[in-house]
Specification:
- The protein is globular, with a radius of gyration of 20 Å.
- The protein has a 6-stranded mixed β-sheet. The chain has a 3-stranded antiparallel β-sheet with strand order 3-4-5, with no helix packed on it. The chain has a two-stranded antiparallel sheet with strand order 1-2.
- It has helices at residues 5-8, 14-22, 45-54, 87-93, 149-159, 195-204, 231-239; strands spanning 25-27, 34-36, 59-62, 65-68, 71-74, 98-101, 112-114, 134-140, 160-171, 207-213, 221-228.
- The chain has 240 residues and is α/β, with parallel strands linked by helices.
- It folds into 2 domains: 5-77, no CATH class; 82-239, Rossmann fold.
- The termini are far apart.
Length: 240
């Protein structure tokens, strides 16, 4: 993960820090061309945002993070790769043949990455996998990007075999920087997941909750681990 050494050294102003992070130029590969840090491959997400964040009227820069709505949020929340915090727990439940939906640059180890626009799973989609064919579906910080999230969640569950696992890691509702319209996500986040809403949706779709940690954890997130019911139990719920 990106080291925060640039963010914690003493500086004269936030503007100076922004110039150092985003305007510093380095030699391009194979020639003497210069390019901004954010143009390099696989750079932290923070590099793409820094110029705008420094000038945003709702934000105040502090060493190592930002103050937004009277709360300090450390930089590590904005660099991407939040899934790393939940991998140890997820790997206890996600075993066998499975996929990581919205994996980006940080797929769950052992999972087949699926992502619309970046990383090893680029241009793969859930529909590429047969129904009832997977041992698990894992997803970190993805469902909040989908407006018709119930439909997508149903598609994910459909790909899991009866008795298989669905593991969701999501931004905590108390974390304001991940609310739709915040300077950090804009319109990229379509809604605010809550543990209760996710639990109810999974149960209504024929899943049994195995573990629920309402958080917030160190990444200001929560997780839900659910088991897809057998064909018989799903049919029973449909007729209730």
């Amino acid at each position: 993960m990106f080291q925060l050494r640039h963010l914690v050294q003493p500086i004269r102003s936030a503007k100076a820090l922004g110039l150092r992070l985003c305007s510093e130029r380095i030699p391009g590969p194979g020639n003497s061309a210069q390019q901004p840090l954010e143009s390099l491959p696989n750079v932290p997400d923070l590099f793409f945002q820094y110029r705008a964040l420094l000038d945003h009227p709702e934000l105040t820069r502090r060493p190592g993070g930002w103050i937004y709505q009277n709360t300090f949020y450390p930089d590590y929340l904005t660099i991407g790769g939040a899934a790393h915090a939940i991998f140890p727990e997820a790997l206890k439940h996600c075993r066998g043949n499975g996929i990581d939906v919205g994996a980006g640059l940080w797929p769950l180890p052992g999972a087949t990455p699926v992502d619309l626009w970046r990383g090893a799973g680029t241009n793969k989609c859930v529909a590429d996998f047969e129904k009832d064919s997977l041992d698990y579906v894992f997803s970190s910080h993805c469902l909040e990007h989908i407006e018709s999230w119930q439909e997508s969640l149903r598609d994910w569950i459909d790909r899991v075999r009866p008795g298989g696992t669905l593991f969701l890691y999501l931004p905590h509702p108390d974390c304001a920087i991940w609310h739709p319209g915040s300077p950090f996500v804009g319109d990229g986040h379509k809604w605010i997941p809550t543990p209760n809403v996710i639990q109810q949706a999974l149960e209504q779709m024929g899943c049994h909750i195995k573990r629920l940690n309402t958080g917030p954890d160190a990444m200001h997130s929560f997780f839900v681990c659910a088991q897809k019911g057998t064909n018989e139990s799903i049919q029973c719920q449909m007729y209730q």
